[in-house]
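User: tokens in, sequence out, please.
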């Protein structure tokens, strides 16, 4: 037989043998191998930050790394081995690898921190939002970090043991793991404790512990009695009647993912708000802080009474919001939604979602452009005039598909990133598509004001306020949701504008020049609750004058 045929035959036999090879392990060994792989390869962002500033050419660095790795491996093993049995270990490790693969992708490529608020976002994500995140880059990552190791897990043959041997083996592994953990902590306790104390954000990067702990906390807060009656807020609210006044119409536009840094009215190098800039009656607040860095936190927080310092998810779930106070005061309140819901804020008021069927020309793939909200507003106002508040919840700059948030006519800044996988675009292209989306929001807000100017039977006003900001690559971060304590300004500083018609400012005795001056001072989401009550003249015991931006600019009767 020719040498080349012999070589080929050997390769075929080797490949055939490999394809039939099945490693034989006990349950503890399988868990240990997977835990080692998870600790090393699924925690790259953690290791990058944990070892930042260390000299990689010094032996001490590698000793520190080894001790930290041992601590992580032992902790993970102690947890997962306790729940792994011969029948359950493979399904458990499969689920663990799936979760870890998703988490490692977003922490590695977007700088995402998986805390409780981020998991709330995940749990509240709708189908359209989820589809945008299923990029080619994610699928490739899942192939290597989920499918490949999962195939290996299921190829392993587990050694059957009697229950006595199984208990003895498990106990020895757990005792050895615990002993190694104690030794590793003892050898580097001061360094590790100092690192975690001074860099608290690191705990959100330890995969899969970050996701599992946060998921348990998020799920536990979801269990609310569906029949629970929310505690009333501001039941005493009323608006003093005044003969000859027009009905009041206030439109609150809740922006999505718009950051103050790219807002043209704030002095951004690009004019992303040209139409609003041409309106001298628009009052721009340049220094506004958000209540959170995600919609799941910011939206209920900005409409709740306590404010950011005392806000909690449980409070928002168990108490009425600003909209309920307005309803108690006799106003008609309507929530028009072009997003994934109001996070419980609009539970007690009329709620309407923008329908792709109703606004076909502005919608595709289940998503509608925000101009549909303007049309919905016009329809809402066709009824008999009455004191009312209409909330428009925008799709805005919801990422990562910024390019889908505006029509082609608003692709002013080019080249624009036209891919949901931001890793495939340059930072310049990402920023261009993001700015184009703001340019479109400028147009939407201009149309809302035009609509209100035509409503001569009302005294009209508009308040626009974004829920949170966005990172566009600064410090390697993308999107939003960073824990507030360590969040960059790009995620916590948002734009806010007010527009008051002449009839509204006169009827409510507001000095607009004074408001323009007040706009130069710092404000936050905490001001929304009481400023809306103040603008509308609502009288209630829950109103806090010091938090009302307009209070100092109101003429005496």
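Assistant: Sequence out:
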């Amino acid at each position: 037989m020719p040498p080349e045929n012999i070589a080929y035959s050997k390769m075929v036999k080797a490949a055939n043998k490999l394809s039939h090879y099945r490693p034989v392990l006990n349950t503890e060994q399988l868990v240990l191998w997977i835990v080692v792989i998870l600790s090393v390869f699924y925690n790259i962002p953690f290791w990058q930050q944990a070892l930042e500033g260390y000299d990689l050419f010094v032996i001490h660095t590698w000793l520190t790394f080894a001790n930290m790795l041992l601590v992580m491996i032992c902790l993970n093993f102690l947890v997962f081995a306790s729940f792994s049995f011969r029948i359950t270990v493979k399904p458990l490790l499969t689920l663990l690898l799936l979760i870890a693969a998703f988490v490692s992708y977003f922490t590695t490529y977007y700088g995402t921190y998986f805390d409780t608020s981020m998991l709330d976002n995940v749990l509240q994500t709708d189908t359209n939002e989820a589809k945008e995140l299923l990029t080619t880059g994610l699928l490739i990552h899942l192939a290597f970090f989920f499918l490949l190791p999962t195939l290996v897990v299921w190829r392993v043959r587990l050694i059957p043991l009697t229950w006595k041997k199984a208990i003895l083996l498990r106990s020895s592994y757990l005792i050895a793991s615990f002993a190694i953990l104690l030794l590793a902590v003892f050898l580097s306790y001061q360094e590790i404790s100092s690192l975690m104390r001074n860099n608290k954000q690191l705990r959100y990067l330890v995969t899969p512990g970050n996701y599992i702990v946060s998921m348990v906390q998020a799920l536990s807060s979801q269990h609310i009695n569906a029949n629970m009656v929310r505690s009333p807020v501001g039941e005493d609210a009323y608006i003093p009647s005044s003969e000859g006044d027009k009905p009041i119409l206030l439109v609150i536009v809740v922006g999505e993912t718009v950051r103050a840094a790219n807002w043209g009215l704030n002095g951004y190098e690009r004019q992303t708000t040209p139409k609003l800039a041409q309106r001298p009656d628009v009052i721009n607040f340049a220094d506004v802080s958000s209540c959170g860095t995600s919609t799941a936190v910011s939206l209920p927080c900005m409409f709740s009474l306590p404010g950011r310092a005392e806000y909690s998810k449980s409070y928002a779930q168990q108490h009425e919001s600003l909209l309920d106070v307005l309803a108690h005061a006799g106003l008609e309140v309507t929530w028009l939604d072009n997003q994934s819901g109001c996070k419980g804020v609009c539970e007690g008021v009329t709620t309407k979602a923008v329908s792709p069927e109703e606004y076909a020309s502005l919608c595709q793939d289940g998503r509608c452009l925000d101009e549909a909200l303007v049309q919905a507003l016009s329809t809402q106002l066709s009824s008999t005039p009455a004191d009312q508040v209409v909330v428009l919840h925008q799709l805005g700059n919801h990422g990562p598909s910024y390019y889908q948030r505006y029509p082609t006519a608003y692709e002013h800044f080019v080249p624009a990133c036209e891919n949901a996988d931001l890793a495939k675009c340059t930072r310049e292209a990402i920023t261009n598509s993001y700015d184009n989306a703001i340019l479109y929001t400028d147009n939407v807000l201009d149309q809302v004001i035009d609509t209100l100017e035509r409503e001569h039977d009302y005294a009209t006003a508009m308040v626009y306020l974004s829920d949170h900001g966005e990172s566009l690559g600064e410090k390697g971060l993308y999107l939003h949701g960073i824990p507030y304590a360590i969040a960059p300004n790009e995620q916590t500083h948002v734009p806010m504008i007010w527009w008051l018609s002449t009839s509204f400012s006169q009827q409510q005795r507001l000095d607009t020049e004074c408001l323009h001056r007040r706009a130069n001072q710092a404000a936050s989401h905490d001001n929304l609750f009481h400023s809306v009550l103040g603008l509308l003249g609502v009288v209630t015991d829950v109103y806090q004058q010091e938090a009302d931006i307009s209070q100092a600019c109101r003429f005496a009767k």
